[in-house]
Amino acid sequence: MGGILAIDVGNTNIVLGVYEGAKLLRTWRLATVHDRTEDELAVSLDALLSQEDLALSELDALVVGSVVPPLTLAFTRLAERYLERPAFVIGPGVKTGVRLRVDNPSEVGADRIANTLAAHRRYGGPAVIVDFGTTTNFDVVSGEGDFLGGSFAPGLEISAESLFGRASRLFRVPLVPPAAAIGKNTADCLRSGIVFGYVGLIEGLLARIVAELPAKPRVIATGGLATTIAPLAKGIEKVDDDLTLEGLRMLYELNA
Questions:
Q1: Sign of CA dihedral 212, 217, 223, 227
Q2: Residue 98 to residue 95: CA distance in whole angstroms
Q3: Dihedrals φ, ψ of 113, to 5°?
Q4: pLDDT tens readout for residues 161-214
Q5: In angstroms, how far is CA 41 from the centroid of its own chain?
Q6: What is the C-alpha to C-alpha distance for residues 171 and 169, in angstroms, rounded to an integer?
């Protein structure tokens, strides 16, 4: 049995999904370690794939969307060594089916292109994707499937870590909403400010983006914290955890 392994490499997490055709069999999430070698990555991937009775050597393709150049290189070397074929890396020269209506198309990350393609094919357009990662990206898709730009905000986790690291009397709390906005203890005050405050950021940016579009968009959330924040934020219609992986798979199929 072959398969396609789609890999979304972010600054804090690597999300992997193994496909049989268009069917997603399994997903995994790893912490991003920027200096891992191709051999270290191969050991980790083989262990994960073995859960589906697969091995690296049996894969038909390794599809990589990455914003971490050292890991892009490591996955490229991994494919050459263990699959004996090149990795399919989303980058310049790849056919995407997505027109980039922005000032500098070369600046648009692979994850945003993948999100745009998958969102338009799955939900139509216009659409706004809220991608909760190291940064929270707002990706705006036209009715025709073009990428129109968007917005970046500091991610919830790095915002919270910055607060905990700089305020010596405050302590880390789980990033879950408290029962009420008015906290009665330090932990609940922190959770209120961090979680509900972040919801305010999401709702405020969404309102401004939607107001600039000619028609009401679908709003889809994805990324690690989507299931935590989306139910609290007005305007988000749906959570699609696998949107970026689906986009990577679609990009591979466009170029196969």
A1: positive
A2: 8
A3: -65, -45
A4: 888 787 777 778 888 888 999 999 988 999 899 999 999 999 999 999 999 999
A5: 20
A6: 7
Best CA proximity match to 176, nearest among 231, 220, 134 = 231
Contact 202, 130 (CB under 8 A): yes
d(CA 174, CA 195): 10
Question: CA-CA distance, 50 to 48, in Å (whole number)?
Answer: 5
Q: Is 111 a catalytic residue?
A: yes
Q: What confidence tens digit (pLDDT) does each residue in 112-158 have?
A: 999 999 999 999 989 999 999 889 999 999 999 999 999 999 998 88
The catalytically annotated residue of 8, 103, 111, 242 is 111
- C-alpha 171, offset from chain centre: 28
Question: What would the 3-class secondary structure string for the chain be?
Answer: CCCEEEEEECCCEEEEEEEECCEEEEEEEEECCCCCCHHHHHHHHHHHHHHHCCCHHHCCEEEEEECCHHHHHHHHHHHHHHHCCCCEECCCCCCCCCCECCCCHHHCCHHHHHHHHHHHHHHCCCEEEEEECCEEEEEEECCCCCEEEEEEEECHHHHHHHHHHHCCCCCCCCCCCCCCCCCCCHHHHHHHHHHHHHHHHHHHHHHHHHHCCCCCCEEEEEECCHHHHHHHCCCCCEECCCHHHHHHHHHHHHHC
Beta-ladder partners of 30: 14
Instruction: Please state the φ and ψ torsions of residue 116, each to the nearest 5 degrees.
Output: -60, -50
